[in-house]
Amino acid sequence: MARRRRVASVRPDQSFKGRQFTAEVILWAVRWYLMFPISYRDLELMLADRGVDVAHTTLFRWTQTYAPEIEKRIRPHLRPSNGSWRVDETYVRVKGRWMYLYCAVDSRSQTIDFLLSAKRDAEAAKRFFRKALGQPHTVNPRTITVDKNPAYPCAVEQMKEGGELWRFSRLRQVKFLNNIVEQDHRRVKRLARPGLGFGGFHTARRTLAGYEVMAMIRKGQVREIGGRDMRAQAAFVAKLFQIAP
């Protein structure tokens, strides 16, 4: 007697189990907070205007939980970046102290990766390069354009010697070529301004991951999703969590 084949069943996503509000409401709120320069209290009023009574502290917890989850789930769906990297870092205030947000884009302004660091030195630069090289949509860079920060040549040389970076990668220290990555820095500062800084390193890291991943979507980096098609973007994020739009 032939054995019956077992039909594999898809387990429902448990990310929203136990939440008072529906997944659709939560994802809507998180997406809007990460896309537009508004505070949690502003978002609380916007939701109340639509009949959803939720405290700004709850909105904060949603963002801390789901922003990094969206970032993790979206990575495999990104279009490949090219080998012309533009790398720069900017200051971010975290609990009254200045931290450093490393960011890299390619020559088409597509985001390669980002990293929040407490220090701005060769070790931080190497951590950032390793993180960027480990992403599924990136390639070993042909050129790396940076500013005059002396940490970059040291980091690149050490990574080449260790075989972590292509030995023919060319480092260019030309500040004006990094204008496109500085545009990303201005966007992050505009989004963070209503919140008046971050209360802690991990809070900042999770929120910044959300800012960056929503920017990737709006830049059109997700395959088959237009950068200005808000409905398609919302449906795509819902699909990441196995939610019917």
TrEMBL record:
Species of origin: Muricoccus roseus
Residue stretches making up the Integrase catalytic domain: 76-193
Top-level taxonomy: Bacteria, Pseudomonadati, Pseudomonadota, Alphaproteobacteria, Acetobacterales
SUPFAM superfamilies, per database record: Ribonuclease H-like
Domain of life: Bacteria
Record-level Gene Ontology MF annotations: DNA binding
Keyword list, A-Z: DNA recombination, DNA-binding, Membrane, Transmembrane, Transmembrane helix, Transposition
UniProt-listed GO biological process terms: DNA integration; DNA recombination; transposition
The protein's name: Transposase (Or an inactivated derivative)
PROSITE patterns: INTEGRASE
Protein purpose: Involved in the transposition of the insertion sequence.
Transmembrane segments: 21-40
